[in-house]
Amino acid sequence: MEVPCVAVSRVDGEQTRQALASAGVLSEDYQIVHEDGTLYIPVTDPATVPKEFKTITRELPAREGLQAPADILGFEPSLERLGDVVIVDEDDSERAQEIADAVLDSDLPARSVLNRASKIKGELRVRDWELLAERDDPDVDRKPTETVHREYGHEFLVDLDSVYFSPRLATERHRVVEQIQPGEQVLDMFAGVGPFAIPAASRGAEVVAVDLNETAIEYLRENADRNGVSERITAIAGDIHEVAADYHGWADRLVMNLPHSANEFVETAVDLAGDECVIHYYDIQHDSDPFGPGIETIRAAAEPDYEVTVETEHVVRSYAPHELNVCLDVRLSRK
Ligand SMILES: C[S@@+](CC[C@H](N)C(=O)[O-])C[C@H]1O[C@@H](n2cnc3c(N)ncnc32)[C@H](O)[C@@H]1O
Prior knowledge:
By secondary structure, the chain is α/β, with parallel strands linked by helices. The protein has nine helices and 17 strands.
């Protein structure tokens, strides 16, 4: 069957397999194939493969004895996996149900199958879900929308029904977290369940994580505990506009992952910035000028008090036709 996989030379094989496993994208459903000095390692979702690897699509045999949903359906369904939750995105309810039944009948380690029932909405950026199928597991006492996602050596308990979470940003979060130095003061203005804040604390940063969604902050505290970094994280449920008053000039680094409306929070970000501060500013813009509006907004808020240096203009992913999700890494240096 044609599946996404990473192609690497055989000598780099084991190191690559381990890197893909820690990124949480190694597929257990297909066999690794060796051909002419190249290894083809199957992955679950090409969009979440760390950028340093080349992803291609090719025939790979299913793991012996394992039945995939496609073997039952006779076509390859579009599925996303988050821990033991499988997500489909189908408008046709009959087809959605057919896929969900096949998922539970297959050998995928799935506990529940959900269909997207609305767009991501509101300030809390949560969507509605339809539960299509659920496997009764007496050993697991969790809602069908709750699961544990693993990413770059960390684990996150997530309830899709009450908090925002996207596994597609794993590589991007890793790109940002790798820049963090021990001892830095990092403030995540829109922290969710902690996928930036917790790895930042693992790097040795002192972290303040803020979110308007009280449930997200409860999950973040639980996740900090699970990953052994509770002592380095202050988790605050509240509006960052109000919380900012307690952290004026505090941050060496700010994470601003609220891409549809980050521009409304730039003045608050400047207020939080220390004398030297890097801002990771996420935005969604037309592909004709994806970075210009963000740079302009930051300059308008920070100059002339700060010198503004754009360190990186980074395309995270395509968001919609002609719309890009981008990140600006911008350094503010007080004059
Ligand atoms: C796109 S999500 C990002 C969550 C997290 N950083 C992640 O990558 O999974 C944006 C988050 O911002 C939070 N939010 C929205 N408005 C806020 C505000 N005024 N103050 C603090 N958090 C806010 C939402 O509740 C949501 O969890």
